[in-house]
Amino acid sequence: MSGSSQSTQVKKIDVFAINKYVFALYKKYFWAIVIVGIVDTIPQVENYFLSSADPTDRVQFPLEFVLANVLGILITAVTTSTLLWFLDHREHGKKLTLWLAFKQASPYILLIFLASIFVSIISIIGLLFLIVPGIILSIMFSQVVPFMILKKQKIKEAVSSSISLTKGNRWALFRAYGQIWVLGIMLFVLTEPLHSQFANMFVVISYIESIFLGTLGILVTYAIWHFLHSEHHKDVS
Protein backbone atom coordinates (compact mmCIF):
# COMPACT_ATOMS: atom_id res chain seq x y z
CA MET A 1 0.00 0.00 0.00
CA SER A 2 1.40 3.40 -0.94
CA GLY A 3 2.17 6.18 1.54
CA SER A 4 -0.54 8.41 0.08
CA SER A 5 -3.26 5.84 0.57
CA GLN A 6 -2.14 5.30 4.15
CA SER A 7 -2.27 9.03 4.87
CA THR A 8 -5.90 9.27 3.73
CA GLN A 9 -7.06 6.16 5.58
CA VAL A 10 -9.42 6.94 8.43
CA LYS A 11 -9.67 4.56 11.37
CA LYS A 12 -13.08 4.34 12.98
CA ILE A 13 -13.34 5.06 16.68
CA ASP A 14 -15.33 2.86 19.02
CA VAL A 15 -17.99 4.61 21.11
CA PHE A 16 -17.84 1.82 23.68
CA ALA A 17 -14.09 2.41 24.06
CA ILE A 18 -14.76 6.14 24.57
CA ASN A 19 -17.34 5.37 27.26
CA LYS A 20 -14.93 2.99 28.99
CA TYR A 21 -12.18 5.60 28.93
CA VAL A 22 -14.51 8.30 30.29
CA PHE A 23 -15.46 6.01 33.18
CA ALA A 24 -11.77 5.38 33.88
CA LEU A 25 -11.13 9.15 33.95
CA TYR A 26 -13.95 9.62 36.46
CA LYS A 27 -12.44 6.96 38.71
CA LYS A 28 -8.90 8.36 38.53
CA TYR A 29 -9.69 12.07 38.90
CA PHE A 30 -13.07 12.10 40.64
CA TRP A 31 -12.51 14.99 43.06
CA ALA A 32 -10.76 17.19 40.53
CA ILE A 33 -13.68 16.65 38.15
CA VAL A 34 -16.22 17.44 40.88
CA ILE A 35 -14.43 20.70 41.74
CA VAL A 36 -14.44 21.74 38.07
CA GLY A 37 -18.13 20.80 37.87
CA ILE A 38 -19.00 22.96 40.87
CA VAL A 39 -17.25 25.97 39.31
CA ASP A 40 -18.94 25.26 35.98
CA THR A 41 -22.41 25.47 37.58
CA ILE A 42 -21.92 28.97 39.06
CA PRO A 43 -23.90 30.62 36.20
CA GLN A 44 -26.73 28.13 36.74
CA VAL A 45 -27.07 29.22 40.37
CA GLU A 46 -27.22 32.86 39.28
CA ASN A 47 -29.76 32.05 36.57
CA TYR A 48 -31.87 30.19 39.13
CA PHE A 49 -32.17 33.24 41.35
CA LEU A 50 -32.85 35.49 38.37
CA SER A 51 -35.54 33.16 37.04
CA SER A 52 -37.08 33.00 40.50
CA ALA A 53 -37.59 36.75 40.50
CA ASP A 54 -40.94 38.33 39.87
CA PRO A 55 -41.63 38.35 36.09
CA THR A 56 -42.34 42.09 36.22
CA ASP A 57 -38.91 42.66 37.77
CA ARG A 58 -37.26 40.55 35.09
CA VAL A 59 -38.28 43.04 32.42
CA GLN A 60 -36.42 45.74 34.30
CA PHE A 61 -33.06 43.96 34.31
CA PRO A 62 -32.62 42.08 31.00
CA LEU A 63 -28.95 43.09 31.15
CA GLU A 64 -28.45 40.71 34.07
CA PHE A 65 -29.62 37.79 31.94
CA VAL A 66 -27.29 38.78 29.11
CA LEU A 67 -24.37 39.11 31.53
CA ALA A 68 -25.28 35.77 33.12
CA ASN A 69 -25.08 34.05 29.72
CA VAL A 70 -21.78 35.74 28.89
CA LEU A 71 -20.49 34.75 32.33
CA GLY A 72 -21.61 31.20 31.62
CA ILE A 73 -19.61 31.03 28.39
CA LEU A 74 -16.56 32.54 30.11
CA ILE A 75 -16.69 30.13 33.04
CA THR A 76 -17.17 27.21 30.65
CA ALA A 77 -14.05 28.37 28.79
CA VAL A 78 -12.17 28.42 32.11
CA THR A 79 -13.37 25.01 33.30
CA THR A 80 -12.98 23.31 29.93
CA SER A 81 -9.46 24.68 29.41
CA THR A 82 -8.38 23.78 32.94
CA LEU A 83 -9.79 20.25 32.90
CA LEU A 84 -8.48 19.45 29.41
CA TRP A 85 -5.01 20.68 30.37
CA PHE A 86 -5.15 18.76 33.67
CA LEU A 87 -6.32 15.50 32.08
CA ASP A 88 -3.89 15.59 29.17
CA HIS A 89 -0.86 16.27 31.36
CA ARG A 90 -1.84 13.75 34.02
CA GLU A 91 -2.59 11.10 31.40
CA HIS A 92 0.92 11.66 30.01
CA GLY A 93 2.44 11.01 33.42
CA LYS A 94 3.08 14.60 34.51
CA LYS A 95 2.49 15.71 38.10
CA LEU A 96 -0.01 18.53 38.00
CA THR A 97 -2.54 19.98 40.43
CA LEU A 98 -5.83 21.46 39.30
CA TRP A 99 -4.71 24.94 40.39
CA LEU A 100 -1.46 24.64 38.42
CA ALA A 101 -3.45 23.44 35.41
CA PHE A 102 -5.61 26.56 35.65
CA LYS A 103 -2.56 28.83 35.86
CA GLN A 104 -0.87 27.18 32.88
CA ALA A 105 -4.05 27.17 30.79
CA SER A 106 -5.07 30.74 31.68
CA PRO A 107 -3.18 32.44 28.78
CA TYR A 108 -5.48 30.62 26.31
CA ILE A 109 -8.80 31.27 28.06
CA LEU A 110 -9.67 34.54 26.30
CA LEU A 111 -9.13 33.04 22.84
CA ILE A 112 -11.13 29.96 23.82
CA PHE A 113 -13.89 32.22 25.13
CA LEU A 114 -14.03 33.99 21.75
CA ALA A 115 -13.87 30.68 19.89
CA SER A 116 -16.75 29.33 22.00
CA ILE A 117 -18.90 32.32 21.05
CA PHE A 118 -17.99 31.88 17.37
CA VAL A 119 -18.74 28.15 17.37
CA SER A 120 -22.01 28.70 19.27
CA ILE A 121 -23.20 31.34 16.78
CA ILE A 122 -22.37 29.16 13.75
CA SER A 123 -24.07 26.12 15.32
CA ILE A 124 -27.16 28.15 16.26
CA ILE A 125 -27.40 29.50 12.69
CA GLY A 126 -27.29 25.90 11.47
CA LEU A 127 -30.03 24.93 13.91
CA LEU A 128 -32.22 27.83 12.78
CA PHE A 129 -32.27 26.59 9.20
CA LEU A 130 -32.49 22.88 9.93
CA ILE A 131 -31.70 20.76 12.99
CA VAL A 132 -29.30 18.45 11.17
CA PRO A 133 -26.86 21.11 9.88
CA GLY A 134 -26.56 22.54 13.38
CA ILE A 135 -25.76 19.12 14.83
CA ILE A 136 -23.24 18.38 12.08
CA LEU A 137 -21.51 21.74 12.62
CA SER A 138 -21.36 21.13 16.38
CA ILE A 139 -19.67 17.78 15.79
CA MET A 140 -17.27 19.22 13.21
CA PHE A 141 -16.24 21.94 15.69
CA SER A 142 -16.15 19.65 18.74
CA GLN A 143 -12.34 19.48 18.77
CA VAL A 144 -11.66 23.20 18.32
CA VAL A 145 -10.99 23.83 22.01
CA PRO A 146 -8.66 20.81 22.46
CA PHE A 147 -6.62 21.97 19.47
CA MET A 148 -6.41 25.49 20.89
CA ILE A 149 -5.48 24.49 24.43
CA LEU A 150 -3.41 21.35 23.81
CA LYS A 151 -1.80 22.27 20.47
CA LYS A 152 -1.79 26.06 21.02
CA GLN A 153 -3.47 26.75 17.68
CA LYS A 154 -5.28 29.95 16.75
CA ILE A 155 -9.04 29.90 16.13
CA LYS A 156 -8.91 29.60 12.32
CA GLU A 157 -6.30 26.84 12.40
CA ALA A 158 -8.11 24.98 15.20
CA VAL A 159 -11.41 25.06 13.27
CA SER A 160 -9.69 23.62 10.19
CA SER A 161 -7.91 20.97 12.29
CA SER A 162 -11.13 19.97 14.05
CA ILE A 163 -13.01 19.57 10.77
CA SER A 164 -10.18 17.45 9.36
CA LEU A 165 -9.79 15.32 12.50
CA THR A 166 -13.49 14.50 12.87
CA LYS A 167 -13.96 13.62 9.21
CA GLY A 168 -15.01 10.01 8.78
CA ASN A 169 -16.06 9.61 12.41
CA ARG A 170 -18.95 12.06 12.67
CA TRP A 171 -21.65 9.41 13.09
CA ALA A 172 -19.67 7.86 15.96
CA LEU A 173 -19.19 11.31 17.49
CA PHE A 174 -22.90 12.00 17.15
CA ARG A 175 -23.61 8.83 19.13
CA ALA A 176 -20.96 9.71 21.72
CA TYR A 177 -22.37 13.19 22.35
CA GLY A 178 -25.94 12.01 21.78
CA GLN A 179 -25.66 9.79 24.85
CA ILE A 180 -25.20 12.94 26.96
CA TRP A 181 -28.29 14.57 25.45
CA VAL A 182 -30.38 11.43 25.97
CA LEU A 183 -29.10 11.04 29.54
CA GLY A 184 -29.97 14.68 30.29
CA ILE A 185 -33.51 14.20 28.98
CA MET A 186 -33.95 10.99 30.97
CA LEU A 187 -32.75 12.62 34.20
CA PHE A 188 -35.07 15.58 33.62
CA VAL A 189 -38.07 13.29 33.05
CA LEU A 190 -37.25 11.26 36.16
CA THR A 191 -36.73 14.25 38.47
CA GLU A 192 -39.36 16.67 37.14
CA PRO A 193 -42.14 15.16 39.35
CA LEU A 194 -40.11 16.29 42.37
CA HIS A 195 -40.37 19.92 41.26
CA SER A 196 -43.94 20.48 42.45
CA GLN A 197 -43.80 18.35 45.61
CA PHE A 198 -40.20 18.75 46.81
CA ALA A 199 -38.93 22.04 45.40
CA ASN A 200 -35.78 22.23 47.56
CA MET A 201 -34.84 18.63 46.84
CA PHE A 202 -35.39 19.24 43.12
CA VAL A 203 -32.96 22.18 43.19
CA VAL A 204 -30.26 20.08 44.88
CA ILE A 205 -30.75 17.16 42.49
CA SER A 206 -30.70 19.49 39.47
CA TYR A 207 -27.46 21.03 40.73
CA ILE A 208 -25.83 17.60 41.09
CA GLU A 209 -27.07 16.65 37.62
CA SER A 210 -25.52 19.81 36.17
CA ILE A 211 -22.17 19.04 37.81
CA PHE A 212 -22.24 15.54 36.35
CA LEU A 213 -23.50 16.40 32.86
CA GLY A 214 -21.26 19.47 32.49
CA THR A 215 -18.08 17.59 33.29
CA LEU A 216 -19.26 14.58 31.29
CA GLY A 217 -19.27 16.74 28.17
CA ILE A 218 -15.66 17.79 28.81
CA LEU A 219 -14.57 14.20 29.50
CA VAL A 220 -16.22 12.90 26.34
CA THR A 221 -14.52 15.68 24.36
CA TYR A 222 -11.14 14.73 25.82
CA ALA A 223 -11.75 11.01 25.22
CA ILE A 224 -12.64 11.76 21.59
CA TRP A 225 -9.49 13.91 21.30
CA HIS A 226 -7.43 11.11 22.83
CA PHE A 227 -8.67 8.49 20.36
CA LEU A 228 -9.00 10.63 17.24
CA HIS A 229 -5.73 12.46 17.73
CA SER A 230 -3.71 9.33 18.39
CA GLU A 231 -5.34 7.47 15.50
CA HIS A 232 -4.82 10.48 13.24
CA HIS A 233 -1.10 10.50 13.87
CA LYS A 234 -0.84 6.75 13.38
CA ASP A 235 -2.37 7.16 9.92
CA VAL A 236 -0.22 10.05 8.79
CA SER A 237 3.03 8.66 10.14
Task: Characterize the structure shown.
Helix content is 84%, strand content 0%. The model is unreliable at 1-8, 52-60 and 232-237 (pLDDT under 50). α10 crosses α11 (155-166). The chain has one domain (13-231). By secondary structure, it is mainly alpha-helical.
The rounded Rg comes to: 19 Å
- Average of pLDDT: 80
User: What percent strand?
Assistant: under 5%
Strand-pairing-aware structural class: mainly alpha
Q: Find the count of extended strands (DSSP E, 2+ residues).
A: 0
Distance between the termini: 14 Å
List the total number of helices: 14
Proportion of residues in helical segments: over 70%
The tally of structural domains comes to: 1
What's the main sheet like?
Answer: none
Query: Given the C-alpha coordinates, what overall shape results?
Result: globular
Order of helices and strands: HHHHHHHHHHHHHH
Low-confidence stretches: 1-8, 52-60, 232-237
Please outline the helices and strands.
Elements: H1 3-8, H2 15-28, H3 30-40, H4 42-51, H5 55-60, H6 62-91, H7 98-105, H8 109-129, H9 131-140, H10 144-150, H11 155-166, H12 170-191, H13 193-197, H14 199-236
Which key features would you list for this structure?
237 residues; mainly alpha; 14 helices; globular; disordered N terminus
